[in-house]
Structures are given as structure tokens and as C-alpha cells.
Design goal:
The chain is of the alpha/beta class. The chain has helices at about 15-25, 30-35, 55-65, 95-105, 110-125, 125-135, 150-160; strands spanning about 1-5, 25-30, 40-45, 50-55, 70-75, 85-95, 140-145. The protein binds adenosine-5'-diphosphate (ADP) and magnesium ion.
């Protein structure tokens, strides 16, 4: 059983990529949906309009998932912080700030949220967390700025084959 995670700053294309993989038949879990549906949060942060994930319970849930046969792709904010022993590959998506700004504006993010996320992307916050949690050998980075989703899917399939995660 393998868990492959897709993480990255909001707007880097996690959900779009995961949806493409799901359409190809891969099992995909959208972390934000799971957290809400199964109430795997400690509280709701009104100011930031986000759930505060109960990391212990999420880890427990992920361990249960890891007992199932086959490959599961887990995408979303928080995917950079799952138990490293059950994750075989972590894909960190990135995006150049100018393009990330356009994507977030198109999604009608409030200006302060846009600035917060651009700052996080410039500092490579998610990448840093992913490497310190999973170790650099399990982390790959894909810059999505100038790339079609289908092209990114191709790179991921090659990587999964190379690592023996799929055949
Ligand atoms: N590779 C890409 N190139 C251009 N636009 C993209 C790409 N991937 C995603 N997008 C667009 O960027 C926006 C954010 O994508 P989304 O998948 O929702 O990001 P995330 O789930 O990481 O927050 C969406 O409007 C999506 O259509
Ligand atoms: Mg998303």
C-alpha cells in the first residue's frame, strides 16, 4: 500500500492535478473534504476562515487508509505533514508568484489572503515543511507555472514507475 501526497501553496494546482489523476482511475482523497466530512478538526478559525486540523486524528485516519491495498493519492493543505512512514512520495507543486497572483485573483481570494499566500510561496514554506517531514529523497518539486496539467500528469506517472509505486 502506498500513499502519495500532493501539496503546495493554495493556487499551485493541487486539486486540478488530483482531479485529472482521479479521472484516470486513481483513488484520490481531498484532504479538506475528508477533514470536514469526518470532523477531523479541533476548531474553526473564524479570522482565517479555516479549520484547524486535528493532526493526531488525521494521522490515525491515514494509518487506517494505509492498510488498504493499492495506491491512494492525498492532496491538499496539510498533506505536507502526514506520518512519513506511510507516505512513499511527496509531490510539492510550485508556481511563480506573478502567475500565482493571477490564479488567486481569478478565484476571488481576498487581497490579504493573496499576499499571505504569495509570501508563503516566495519563502518555500510548504517545500521546507515537506522536506523536513518526509526527507528530501521522498520529495519532488514540480513548477506548474508554464505547464499543462496533462504534461504534469505524464511526469508524475514516470516518477511513480521509476520508484516502483505503479507498474
Ligand atoms: N498547471 C496549471 N496551469 C495553469 N493554471 C492552472 C494549473 N493548475 C491549476 N490551474 C488553475 O489555477 C487555479 C488553482 O488551481 P487549484 O487546483 O484549485 O489549486 P489548489 O488546489 O492548489 O489550491 C484554478 O483556477 C486552476 O484552474
Ligand atoms: Mg485545492
Amino acid at each position: 500500500m502506498s500513499i502519495v501526497v500532493i501539496c503546495g501553496t493554495p493556487g499551485t494546482g493541487k486539486s486540478a492535478l488530483a482531479d485529472a489523476l482521479s479521472r484516470m482511475g486513481f483513488r484520490v482523497i481531498h484532504l479538506s473534504k475528508l477533514v470536514v466530512e469526518e470532523r477531523l478538526y479541533r476548531a474553526y478559525d473564524k479570522r482565517r476562515q479555516a479549520y484547524i486540523i486535528d493532526e493526531e486524528r488525521l494521522a490515525e485516519r491515514m494509518r487506517k487508509l494505509a492498510d488498504i491495498d493499492g495506491l491512494v493519492i492525498v492532496e491538499g493543505i496539510g498533506a505536507e505533514a502526514l506520518p512519513p512512514d506511510i507516505v512513499s512520495l511527496c509531490i510539492v507543486l510550485t508556481c511563480e508568484p506573478f502567475a500565482l497572483r493571477e490564479r488567486l485573483e481569478r478565484r476571488n481570494f481576498p487581497p490579504e489572503k493573496i499576499e499571505e499566500n504569495l509570501e508563503a510561496e516566495r519563502f518555500g514554506i510548504i517545500l521546507g515543511e515537506a522536506i523536513s517531514n518526509y526527507g528530501s529523497s521522498k520529495v519532488i518539486v514540480i513548477d506548474t507555472t508554464y505547464r499543462e496539467i496533462s504534461d504534469i500528469v505524464g511526469e508524475i506517472l514516470d516518477e511513480l514507475k521509476k520508484r516502483g509505486i505503479i507498474q
